[in-house]
């Protein structure tokens, strides 16, 4: 039982589960925003143009007992288009602009080498300065001029 709870705690503590939960909550809030945009602004605009609150009642006809509602399809397509446009202009475009500015800022400043690389370079330099027995023997057996 304890390992199950530990596993669940590890799962929730991982970033993926928390990010997914935040995305769902933001998605629900954004859905409310887009719905109110459609009902409060786009619907009355369509009503003033076509004479109804939405397109679902328009372009409706019956053939051989089947009722076809092209207005309903057009209304759903319009709401999808409005939702996609709102997502793009309110979320995607500003985040892309912010990411571009961050990348530009990172490219301007040279990145400092990591600490472990600096330590390794210092060790390399110290080893290069050290005289080894082989170098000492070579120096001692060299002909003198």
TrEMBL record:
Q: Name where it's found.
A: Cell membrane; Membrane
Keywords assigned by UniProt, alphabetized: Cell membrane, Ion channel, Ion transport, Membrane, Transmembrane, Transmembrane helix, Transport
Q: Which Pfam families match?
A: MscL (PF01741)
Keyword Transmembrane helix assigned to the entry: answer is yes
Highest taxon of the lineage? Bacteria
Give the residue spans that cross the bilayer: 20-50, 70-93
Question: How does it sit in the bilayer?
Answer: Multi-pass membrane protein
InterPro entries in the record: MS_channel (IPR001185), MSC/AndL (IPR037673), MscL_channel (IPR036019)
Q: Which HAMAP family match?
A: MscL
Q: Which family does it belong to?
A: Belongs to the MscL family.
Q: What does this protein do?
A: Channel that opens in response to stretch forces in the membrane lipid bilayer. May participate in the regulation of osmotic pressure changes within the cell.
Q: What do we know about how this protein assembles, alone or with others?
A: Homopentamer.
- According to UniProt, the name of this protein is Large-conductance mechanosensitive channel
Q: Which organism is it from?
A: Cellulomonas chengniuliangii
Q: What is the lineage of its organism?
A: Bacteria, Bacillati, Actinomycetota, Actinomycetes, Micrococcales
Q: Which gene encodes it?
A: mscL
């Amino acid at each position: 039982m304890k390992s199950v709870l530990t596993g669940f705690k590890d799962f929730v503590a991982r970033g993926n589960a928390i990010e997914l939960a935040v995305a769902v909550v933001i998605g629900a809030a954004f859905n409310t925003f887009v719905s109110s945009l459609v009902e409060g602004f786009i619907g009355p605009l369509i009503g003033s143009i076509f004479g109804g609150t939405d397109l679902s009642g328009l372009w409706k006809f019956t053939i051989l007992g089947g009722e076809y509602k092209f207005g309903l399809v057009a209304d759903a397509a319009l709401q999808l288009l409005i939702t996609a446009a709102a997502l793009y202009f309110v979320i995607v475009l500003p985040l892309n602009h912010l990411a571009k500015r961050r990348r530009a800022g990172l490219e301007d400043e040279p990145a400092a080498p990591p600490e472990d690389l600096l330590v390794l370079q210092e060790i390399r330099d110290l080893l290069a300065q050290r005289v080894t027995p082989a170098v000492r023997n070579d120096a001692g057996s060299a002909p003198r001029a």
